[in-house]
Specification:
Layout (H helix, E strand, L loop, with lengths): L4 H4 L12 E2 L10 E6 L2 E8 L4 E2 L5 E7 H10 L6 E4 L3 E3 L2
Antiparallel strand pairs: 1-7, 2-3, 2-7, 3-5, 4-5, 5-6
């Protein structure tokens, strides 16, 4: 085996690392994979199902659901349960 990266990773080489970015910087959110920031750590495999909007208390939020619920909703039309998350706690995953 050689240490030449072009031999180990032909054509385009290694894909670039993906860095999450704040949902507040994303122009459209609905349907995108997101990462939630919680006191216990980060929660992956979630989907945004709304754009940023103000809740009743005037906080900017995004409606979020699990990826499993999102695809069930897409395939069956079954009404999912979405939770509002403060925009500053949501990151775009890819």
């Amino acid at each position: 085996m050689t240490d030449n990266p072009e031999v180990r990773h032909p054509w385009f080489g290694r894909p670039p690392a993906i860095q999450p970015w704040p949902a507040a910087d994303e122009p459209t959110l609905c349907g995108k994979r997101v990462i939630l920031s919680t006191p216990e750590g980060f929660v992956y495999d979630m989907r945004a199902v709304s754009e940023r909007h103000l809740d009743r208390r005037g906080r900017e939020v995004i409606e979020i659901m699990t990826e499993q619920d999102y695809f069930r909703w897409m395939w069956t039309g079954e009404s999912p349960h979405a939770e509002p998350w403060s925009t500053h706690l949501v990151w775009i995953d890819r």
